[in-house]
């Protein structure tokens, strides 16, 4: 199974979400991460994890998009691969999108994030034509102001596209997200029962249900 955190815009929280999902899933299934981000953020985070004497996550890197495609073709049901794609359009990222069993696109309520989502929709339309079926991504409201309660306008924006489904889970702005990754830990390992931990638990359970794990 393959989950890809994908958005053509950087800075939306793909790496943080990918990391927490990978650590949580590694407790119940053979899990590896493919780090396509040019900054190799999760590779660095995994090194920090090893320094903390914690079990590292298996990290994979590929030299070409063709190598990534070959890996995806041999994907197994009893393993989970989480791909952290870069915040740009590339052959690597397009292969990841088309190979995925589940796409997740974090987006905040910031205007630039929403504008970027419109551009990402064009990529999905193009790939859908190639694949011959509608490719959908699951929109995750991420880094949302904790005081924000009404999502009517955001939901309406997302639901106007055939390429977007909306996840129920919401991740809000929490300092624990940045602090935990800085120590090579998941939210649960950093501060269990915190608001951030509860929110990530909700997302984890929702993803498990979508993948029938």
Give the SSE layout.
Elements lengths: L1 E4 L8 H12 L4 E6 L5 H11 L6 E3 L4 H9 L5 E6 L6 H9 L2 E6 L3 H21 L5 E8 L7 H7 L5 E9 L2 H7 L5 H4 L4 H17 L2
Parallel strand pairs: 1-4, 1-5, 2-3, 2-4, 5-6, 6-7
Helix pairs in contact: 3-4
Please tell me about this protein's structure:
Helix content is 46%, strand content 20%. Helix 2 (41-51) links the parallel strand 2 (30-35) and strand 3. The protein is an alpha/beta fold. The mean pLDDT is 92. The protein starts with a strand and ends with a helix. The chain is built from nine helices and seven strands, in the order βαβαβαβαβαβαβααα. A seven-stranded parallel beta sheet has the order 3-2-4-1-5-6-7, sandwiched between helices.
Short synopsis of the structure:
With 213 residues, the protein is α/β, with parallel strands linked by helices.
Mean pLDDT: 92
CATH class: Alpha Beta
CATH superfamily: P-loop containing nucleotide triphosphate hydrolases
Spell out the helices and strands N to C: EHEHEHEHEHEHEHHH
Query: Quick one: how many beta strands?
Result: 7
- What gyration radius follows from the Cα positions, in whole Å? 16 Å
Characteristics of this structure?
213 residues, alpha/beta, Rossmann fold, seven-stranded parallel sheet, 9 helices, 7 strands, 46% helix
């Amino acid at each position: 199974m393959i989950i890809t955190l994908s958005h053509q815009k950087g800075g939306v929280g793909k790496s943080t979400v990918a990391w927490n999902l990978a650590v949580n899933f590694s407790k119940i299934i053979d899990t590896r991460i493919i780090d396509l981000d040019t900054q190799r953020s999760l590779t660095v985070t995994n090194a920090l994890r090893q320094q903390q004497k914690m079990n590292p996550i298996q990290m994979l890197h590929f030299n070409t998009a063709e190598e990534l495609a070959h890996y995806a073709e041999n994907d197994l049901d009893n393993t989970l691969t989480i791909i952290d794609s870069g915040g740009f359009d590339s052959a690597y990222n397009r292969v990841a999108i088309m190979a995925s069993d589940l796409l997740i696109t974090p987006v905040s309520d910031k205007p630039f994030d929403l504008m970027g989502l419109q551009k990402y929709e064009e990529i999905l339309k193009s790939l859908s034509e190639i694949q011959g079926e509608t490719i959908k991504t699951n929109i995750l409201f991420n880094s949302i102001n904790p005081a924000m309660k009404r999502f009517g306008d955001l939901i309406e924006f997302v639901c106007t596209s055939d390429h977007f489904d909306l996840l129920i889970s919401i991740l809000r702005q929490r300092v624990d997200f940045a602090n935990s990754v800085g120590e090579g830990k998941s939210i649960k390992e950093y501060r269990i029962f915190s608001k951030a931990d509860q929110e990530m638990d909700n997302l984890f359970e929702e993803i498990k249900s979508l993948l029938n794990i």
